[in-house]
Write a structure and sequence with these properties.
10 strands, alpha+beta, 2,3-Dihydroxybiphenyl 1,2-Dioxygenase, domain 1, 2 helices, 125 residues
Length: 125
């Protein structure tokens, strides 16, 4: 039913201007539509991300968006770090750290947050 349909990520924020600046200028996403002071739609590859104003912004404690970046994960993490993006470090059995990148076997993941505290990540898939 939905398996052949596109999906869009939705990110709740309190300060749309600050979030818009982060997603456009820090992450490099392209704004493609704006609904006044309520929503900015960004293109990320062939997908869309809706960044919208909400009183519940920053309350999600799980990953909201994942970018599959392949072997560029280290280079992209470094570029984000150079722009001042702080990374999250989590501890799990069997996971080692390579800078800001969590390594478990062949899987590499780097987590970071947007200005509202939404958890975002890069993965080497």
């Amino acid at each position: 039913m939905l398996g052949n349909r596109n999906a869009t990520a939705n990110i709740a924020v309190k300060d749309l201007a600050k979030a818009g600046d982060f997603y456009e200028n820090t992450l490099g996403l392209k704004p493609v539509h704006r609904e006044g002071e309520e929503v900015i739609v960004f293109a990320s590859g062939d997908t869309l991300i809706n960044v919208y104003r909400s009183e519940f912004a920053g309350t999600n404690k799980a990953t909201a968006v994942t970018w599959a970046v392949g072997e560029d994960i280290g280079k992209i993490a470094k570029a984000l770090e150079d722009k001042g993006v702080p990374f999250e470090h989590y501890e799990w059995p069997g996971v080692t750290m390579d800078g800001h990148i969590h390594v478990h076997g062949d899987m590499k993941v780097a987590w970071f947050k947007d200005p509202e505290g939404n958890i975002l990540n890069l993965i080497n898939q």
